[in-house]
């Protein structure tokens, strides 16, 4: 154990630091104050179901289910309530409950068991969410060891930064483009340095990532205007406006989303190039700066093709049903390409791919700055 601590002292210090940062972020509350509805959301189990109030309208359903449920959490634990599940003829939101289902129920203050009818909100998914995350974490640590643990911590840190810092600041009206760039900078530094360590390899990967994402953001700012995209194609953007945030700039939020979405793949490619250059310097410490940069360029060419395709497939999976709908209706390419939803995904995919293409030479140049002559002492 003593040898393990001595050999991994730097990694353990980094892990402890980011665990402390994650704990601190849990207590950060920058979200705007809202008037919450009185009551609480509790876990419950469905005991009985009455479907007599459901009306079938083609493939859609209207009306609602009458339920008898038992509360499993909170001050009403063990109490039985009548509940109602409203169906709105919206397939993406409607759900049908069966006896034995675990659900999330909205219980208002002063509700009386056996008298009050409460709202059956949705299926309860928190338990399975934690189980899936725990399974992912265990697999990551078993396979990656201490590196897997660092990757898991960086994953949690990224979630907390986006939810507790980026989202609230955007809601408060700060420039979404600047906030997204700040977020990407923080996350890139955290993820790269916690995994690679604070060394010339990490410096090269970090600087290449920031240059690549910055280039993508600048191109997104230009082409969002050229394509006349207003950002309203993003999910729930109209609902956000109706929630009292009509002052928000949706095109800027869309540009910020492009930067954030592309940063992961850009970071991955930057690390690939920096790691390859690190190996070159390790085996050829006498290599010239020019030759090292040329090696970085060749490494970048080898991986940029597959990474670009990976980004295309990742984005395509998000709008597969949209493509199927156009194909089913026999939509012509001229209509398909000019559709705002398709145009927004085209811009997102190609701009993100531009960042991937540019990050390879950027990282190679930065590797030429940070790696030669210094790597021998790391």
Shape: globular
Number of individual domains: 2
Mean pLDDT, all residues? 87
Strand content: 5-15%
Enumerate the spans where pLDDT stays under 50 for 5 or more consecutive residues. Answer: 374-378
Number of helices: 11
In the sheet with the most strands, the strands line up as 1-3-4-6-5
The major pleated sheet works out as:
5 strands, mixed, barrel
Rg over alpha carbons? 25 Å
What is the straight-line distance between the termini? 24 Å
The ordered string of helix (H) and strand (E) elements is HHEEEEEEHHHHHHHHH
- Helix and strand content put the structural class at alpha+beta
Please give the number of β-strands. Answer: 6
What is the oligomer described by this structure? single chain
Instruction: Work out the helicity level.
Output: 55-70%
């Amino acid at each position: 154990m003593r040898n393990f601590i001595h050999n991994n002292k730097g990694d353990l210090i980094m892990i402890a630091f980011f665990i402390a940062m994650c704990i601190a972020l849990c207590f950060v509350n920058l979200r705007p104050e809202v008037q919450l509805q009185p009551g609480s959301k509790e876990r419950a189990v469905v005991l009985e179901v009455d479907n007599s109030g459901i009306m079938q309208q083609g493939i859609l359903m209207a009306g609602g289910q009458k339920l008898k449920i038992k509360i499993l959490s909170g001050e009403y634990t063990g109490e039985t309530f009548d509940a109602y599940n409203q169906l709105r003829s919206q397939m993406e939101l409607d759900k049908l409950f069966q006896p034995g289902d675990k659900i999330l129920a909205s219980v208002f203050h002063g509700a009386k068991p056996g008298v009050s009818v409460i709202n059956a909100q949705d299926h309860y998914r928190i338990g399975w969410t934690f189980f899936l995350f725990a399974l992912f974490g265990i697999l990551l640590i078993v396979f990656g060891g201490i590196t897997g643990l660092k990757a898991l911590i960086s994953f949690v840190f990224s979630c907390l930064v986006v939810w507790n810092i980026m989202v609230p600041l955007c809601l408060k009206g700060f420039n979404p483009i600047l906030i997204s760039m700040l977020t990407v900078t923080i996350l890139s530094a955290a993820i790269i340095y916690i995994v690679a360590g604070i060394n010339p390899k990490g410096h090269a990967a970090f600087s290449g990532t920031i240059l690549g994402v910055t280039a993508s953001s600048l191109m997104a700012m230009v082409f969002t205007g050229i394509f006349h995209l207003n950002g309203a194609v993003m999910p729930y953007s109209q609902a956000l406006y109706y929630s009292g945030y009509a002052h928000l700039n949706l095109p800027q939020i869309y540009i910020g989303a492009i930067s954030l979405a592309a940063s992961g793949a850009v970071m991955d490619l930057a690390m690939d190039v920096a790691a390859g250059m690190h190996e070159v310097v390790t085996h050829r410490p006498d290599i010239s700066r020019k030759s090292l940069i040329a090696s970085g360029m060749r490494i970048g060419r080898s991986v940029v093709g597959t990474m670009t395709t990976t980004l295309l497939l990742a984005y395509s999976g998000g709008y597969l049903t949209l493509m199927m709908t156009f194909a089913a209706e026999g939509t012509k390419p001229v209509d398909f390409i000019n559709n705002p939803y398709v145009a927004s995904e085209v811009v997102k995919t190609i701009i993100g791919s531009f960042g991937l293409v540019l990050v390879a030479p950027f990282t190679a140049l930065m590797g030429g700055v940070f790696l030669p002559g210094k790597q021998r002492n790391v």
